[in-house]
């Protein structure tokens, strides 16, 4: 009798394992997550470029402040993922990475240092949470020359930009970057 109970629980355990997404299923979810991250990057990049041209860098800060969270919310709604930008040196007070995101960025930075191309750096994983399983994905956000206008060495940033940042983001940590570094990640997740 005892043996039967044991083998049943062993079966239950196996069934639990089998319900984990296969490598193929994970690759398909990663493709969807990559697409959602790409949409966010493209839309925000487009609006940032237009705002820089129309309003100059200090005016563009206001556009970023207003539009970045809204674009992230729109892409989340449309894709069925939760999509956001985070950074260990965040400007947006809501941009603090959680433990998985911190580890993901550290891993991507190691791979970048080992010679991988920054544009295609990404990682994903199925993780356990208190309530079940979750698919997590991170795409690197490399620093490009245009980013330095608002995220570069403060000594080289325009006074108007610094004044606007100080007023809007008193706790800003997001300066001091150079091209080739990772500014942060696009974090994409979905409960399974
Ligand atoms: C016109 C100024 C400006 C430029 C140029 C700019 N940013 Fe930002 N960035 C901001 C502001 C303002 C925020 C905070 C608003 C937000 O995302 O909610 C921000 C936030 C971020 C965040 C979210 C995490 C955090 O720190 O809060 C990331 C990631 C980021 N920027 C990356 C970039 C990258 C990569 C570039 C270059 C492609 C760039 N930014 C160019 C102004 C700028």
From TrEMBL:
Keywords: Signal. The keyword Cytoplasm does not apply. The keyword Signal applies. InterPro entries: Tll0287-like_dom (IPR021796). Residues 1-23 form the signal peptide. PROSITE patterns: PROKAR_LIPOPROTEIN. This is DUF3365 domain-containing protein. It comes from Thiobacillus sedimenti.
């Amino acid at each position: 009798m005892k043996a039967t109970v044991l083998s049943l629980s062993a079966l239950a355990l196996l069934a639990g394992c089998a319900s984990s997404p296969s490598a193929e299923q994970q690759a398909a979810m990663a493709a969807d997550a990559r697409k959602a991250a790409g949409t966010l990057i493209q839309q925000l990049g487009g609006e940032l470029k237009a705002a820089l041209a129309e309003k100059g860098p200090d005016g563009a800060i206001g556009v970023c402040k207003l539009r970045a969270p809204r674009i992230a919310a729109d892409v989340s709604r449309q894709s069925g993922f939760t999509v956001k930008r985070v950074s260990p040196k965040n400007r947006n007070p809501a941009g603090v990475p959680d433990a998985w995101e911190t580890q993901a960025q550290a891993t991507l930075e190691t791979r970048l240092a080992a010679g991988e191309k920054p544009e295609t750096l990404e990682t994903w994983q199925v993780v356990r949470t208190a309530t079940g399983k979750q698919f997590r994905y991170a795409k690197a956000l490399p620093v490009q020359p245009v980013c330095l206008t608002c995220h570069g060495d403060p000594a080289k940033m325009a006074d108007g930009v610094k004044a606007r940042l100080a007023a809007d983001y008193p706790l800003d940590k997001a300066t001091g970057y150079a091209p080739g570094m990772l500014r942060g990640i696009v974090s994409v997740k979905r409960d399974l």
